[in-house]
Amino acid sequence: MKTGSLQFTLVIFFVYCTLPLLTKAQEQNVKPNILWITSEDNSPFLGCYGDEFAKTPTLDKLASEGFRYIRAFANSPVCSPARNTIITGVYAASNGNEQMRSAYPKSESVIPYPELLRKAGYYCTNNVKTDYNYGGDWNSMWDECSTKAHWKNAPEGKPFFAIFNLMTTHESQIFPYNPDDKLRHKPEDVVLPPHHPDTKEMRHDWAQYYDKIEDMDVQVGELLNELEESGLAENTIVFYYSDHGGVLARSKRYIFETGTWVPFIVKIPEKYKQYFPADKPGTSVDRNISFVDLAPTLLSLVNEPKPGYMQGQAFLGTAIEPEPEYIHMTRSRMDERVDMSRAVRDKKYRYIRNYMPYRIYLQHLAYLFQARSAQSWEDYYLAGKCNDLQSLAFHIKPVEELYDTENDPNELYNLANDPAFKNVLERMRKENYRWMAEIRDVALIPETQYTARAGEGSMYDYMRSEACPFDVLLEAAELATLPGHGDIDKYIELLKNEDSALRYWGVSGLLIHIENAKKALPELRNAVKETETSNAVLIAETLSHLGEIDLAESIYLRILKDKNKTILERNFVLNSTDAINFKTPEIEKWIKQYYESKKEETKGFAVFATYDFSMCKTLLEKWGILERTSVSLY
């Protein structure tokens, strides 16, 4: 054979052998389409998660064809802060957007993931919920954000990222109540959790909620069928998850399993099997994941680098990161109700630290208590019909909680004071402190002080500036919430500090350890002219507990009558007066006048625009001045 013919033959042979390999490599380098289907307010009440009462054939099938994560958590148990974490890859408590329904600025250095995906060549659509809990334009980050947003609108040849958000299981869907409803899930068949009283409203709402989950499952099926019919399923990675747990009282808004554990299923086509998190589809995945991990995971799936500000760990794609040992969850103001808690979850235990333990768990919240089930629970408690476990929700909280989630999935038996769990408690306590330091937790500063600190900037940036005494603040918060007798002398010193947030933790320590705080009375009396609202309110509350009713009233009224105070500042006062049932003729008079003056003005406004008005209404009902109708006492 001539040399030239031999060379030609070898070239043909090389091409023949390598072409399939090159084609396969090119296919693997093609960026996948990504479809997110999210539902609202539902825990893993699905057949594929072992719930025998659920009827969810679509999601059960998706799990059999994909990967079911069994340790997936929302970092906040309510929608807006949860979405803030998702869209940024930064904890809402770090962004300064943890308070429910806030409009505080986002740091310019924190870029929402749709902008990063678009720069990577993706067509990004959102249908349709935004609700990211920060001020500014939420729509411009998307190629399309509307009820018409759809992957089918993507330019030919361009990969898409598309979200469809299903509202069917949202809390509001159980507000309509008709005891004669023909529900598919029978109320009498509901197995109630031990913390819920057996009322007809509770059974009805549980059954109705399961109907809504079944309806949601059908909607998921319609979207998946549409994807199949489009011919794009083999190129599309599908995610399904809920935005947090829920939805009956003591789930949504609470950093227990019931509020934070979510269903999470990922289906990955065979074409992208290099991304499988386990050997084969139909497998459950035991890895700890939470919403802060979603943005890094998206970037890893499209082979883009993770920005340094993102705080989560990618769990799929080309740049998988180590599994976190702990999941972190946070709770602060929920609509008109002020609170602050932090939770740490490993694969067995949940630790909770309550920074406002002087507030009960299930505060009467206007939106939540539109559900007849929640109303009936409160009515049962007030009538003395709840047992000890059902009554816990209406008690003030301990500073620390520790639960064995395997043996106590409803988290009703606190092990924090059990010597057998001392080592677990100390380990989780240290992890909470470490994490708060790492993310520069904004809640160390009361919300009423945000604007004075950050001005028009973000709290994220403020907490990283030289102006913020962060390390001292964290130490003060830890000191104020010491279990046991506390350190009254140190709280008194903090009460005199020049920094208003440190003074806040000083008076917090006194209020939390009120049984030992009498020696602080002289300093508390000297502090009655405190100008920062949150500090002044807690000083008044502490003074009231120590018998100084007139001084406490003078502080409350000074703030309430000051027309320069904000809705949030008045709301802080009213939260306090409700907590200790502080009712004097002058306080009652102001609340009645304010309620009447705002009654017409607030009609048609969303609940979150009228927090102080909502609190006035709650107090007037509590005191029998406005009629409050009991729901069920049988």
Describe this structure in words.
The protein is α/β, with parallel strands linked by helices. Among the domains are: 1-30; 31-323, Alkaline Phosphatase, subunit A (3-Layer(aba) Sandwich); 528-634. 39% of the residues lie in helices and 10% in strands. The protein is built from 22 helices and 14 strands. The protein has helices spanning 3-29, 57-65, 79-88, 92-95, 113-119, 200-230, 257-260, 294-301, 372-382, 388-391, 422-439, 450-454, 459-463, 470-480, 488-495, 500-512, 521-526, 533-545, 549-560, 567-579, 585-598, 611-622; strands at residues 33-39, 67-69, 72-73, 123-127, 144-145, 160-166, 236-242, 264-267, 283-285, 289-290, 327-331, 341-345, 349-354, 400-404. The strands form three sheets. The chain has an eight-stranded mixed sheet, with helices on both faces. It has a four-stranded antiparallel sheet with strand order 11-12-13-14, with helices on one face. It has a two-stranded parallel ribbon with strand order 3-10. Strand 12 (341-345) and strand 13 (349-354) form a beta hairpin. It is globular, with a radius of gyration of 27 Å. The chain starts with a helix and ends in a 12-residue tail after the last helix. The model is unreliable at 10-15 and 17-28 (pLDDT under 50).
